[in-house]
Automatic annotation (TrEMBL):
Pfam families: Glyoxalase. This is Glyoxalase. PANTHER family: BNAUNNG04460D PROTEIN-RELATED, VOC DOMAIN-CONTAINING PROTEIN. SUPFAM superfamilies: Glyoxalase/Bleomycin resistance protein/Dihydroxybiphenyl dioxygenase. InterPro entries: Glyas_Bleomycin-R_OHBP_Dase, Glyas_Fos-R_dOase_dom, VOC_core. Residues 11-134 form the VOC domain.
Length: 153
């Protein structure tokens, strides 16, 4: 059997994040999003050099902050401009689980003009999560009409 050019369980595009407290973050993601851990590689000082979790079937790779390797966490750099988009079957239930696990509300859950029900949570490690359940299919033209209407209100 020939080896694929894509790592087993990965997609052509995957997120790889740096976290101060990677082991604790894995536990948070398990509680908040039902993540399952695929494995971790430890460096001699006990920190995680590489770890992999699955959330809703998607691979998220991560490592502890390691300044010597050039890996800095959101805490060290003073924030993070990115947001993870996570589609789930029940946004209300998962949003509450994320809060119960230690996340904080960035945006309360709302039904959005583009057909999704959405809420945003900040995890304790500096990453934002846009938790979403898709409710209604529509064209970009319909989304634009609804967007225009929203902007005019």
């Amino acid at each position: 059997m020939q080896t694929s050019h894509i790592y087993p369980g990965a997609y052509p595009l995957n997120a790889y994040i740096t976290i101060k407290g990677c082991s604790e973050a894995i536990e948070f993601y398990k509680k908040a999003f039902g993540a399952t851990e695929r494995g971790r590689l430890l460096i001699p000082n006990g920190l995680i050099g590489h770890a992999e979790i699955l959330i809703e079937g998607s691979l998220l790779m991560m490592a502890d902050e390691n300044i010597e390797w050039g890996n800095k966490s959101p805490e060290t750099i003073g924030g993070n401009p990115m947001t993870f988009g996570l589609y789930v079957e029940d946004v209300d239930a998962v949003f509450q689980k994320a809060l119960d696990a230690g996340g904080t509300v960035v945006m309360a859950i709302e039904d959005m003009f583009y057909g999704d029900r959405v809420g945003k949570v900040m995890d304790p490690f500096g990453y934002k999560w846009m938790i979403t359940t898709h409710k209604e299919d529509m064209s970009f033209e319909e989304m634009q009409k609804r967007f225009d209407k929203m902007l005019c209100e």
